[in-house]
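Q: Joint fold for the lines below.
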Amino acid sequence: MCLAVPGKIIEIYESGGLLMGKIDFGDIYREACLAYVPEAQIGDYTVIHVGFALHLVSEDEAQETLALLRQLAEAGDQAEIS
Amino acid sequence: MKHVTEYRDAALVKGVIAEIQRLVTRPWVIMEICGGQTHAIMRYGLDQLLPDEIELVHGPGCPVCVTPLELIDKALAISSMPDVIFTSYGDMLRVPGSQNDLFSVRANSGDVRVVYSPLDAVRIARENPDKEVVFFAIGFETTAPANAMSVLQAHSSGLHNYSVLVSHVRVPPAMDAILSSPHNRVQAFLAAGHVCAVMGYWEYPRIAQQYRIPVVVTGFEPLDIAQGILMAVRQLEQGSYVVDNAYSRVVTFAGNQPAQAVINQVFVECDRKWRGIGMIPNSGWRLRPEFHDYDAETRFSVSQINPDESPLCIAGQILQGLKLPHHCPAFGTLCTPEQPLGATMVSSEGACAAYYRYARVER
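A: Joint structure:
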């Protein structure tokens, strides 16, 4: 129930009065409602749950987190070597 | 896959686990309250990779598991009625009621349909004007924006044959219930990442301060969970108790404002009974009076329901983190995913299902 998968927005359109999008999940495409991410642009990544985009994925935050975790892994490797 | 694969990097996970090992000086009990996280932990064997000092327990993070038996029985009764199309998320189909489950209702010619999104249920209502379409609106805060939107869509299109059977539960009151229990052993909480993507984490500082426990908003990939545990351990070892965010690429303090606005427009807080736990005040959402027409509980009159739980099932204790699935005498013998005694064994987010699937027999 909590599992929401990140996908890339490749199309944005309106349908039935709702903002909708076509989402690329890598090997499949699905339609999702973008009503809750009105600021979404084509190319943005978003987490989709039960057919709705819940939040955009922040590229900056993702990079910062991964950089920190890479530093941690390297520091660990160095500690092992020394 | 971008924003997924990076968080399954084994070397990075190892790096985080090594740091946890370096920091930890004594035993700690950490609880997560999300079935998706329970399954990820089991699937990637994180519980086995972590140092022995870290004990991971599982909370009632499975909305399917905590839906009261009376409501399941009500769903079964409604779905068996003529001219009703009963729609639901897939994981509800095999959850046992007192006598049977939605799957067997369907096998006996009831019109029960799995939908991916509640908007699909609205579409079915539009396409079948001579039928009553009911949607089983289950979930934590994560599904509330979708469920609420389906009601607004039905309302704005003047659909009279759509209704929702609501069983929404909220995470913060469940945390209160667990932390204020005299049996509580939990010393830190991992907050559910996608619940917080919707709601933000502005509800958690009060909990962290009141019970003096660290709360870390955590995601679902192995690296996310490892990082969440690392941030919890850092706080535990230094004696701090604040809210940390280990899922910042998707979660902000304020959360998704448009989603919260729609939730507040359609739902209002209410007391809710949690299967296996009991009534937790203000722990649920129900439809606001102005949407009363869409409430399946009042639209369909169902005769007196006397729910009947299996006497063997200890799901309630498992959902409160007091016991683990393999402590149950029926685990894997009388109770299996094919023949579940309780919801925790059949739900895709249930702890018992996770332990069974990933073969955890003993620690």
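Q: Anything notable?
A: The two ends of chain A are 45 Å apart (CA to CA). Chain A has one domain: 5-81.
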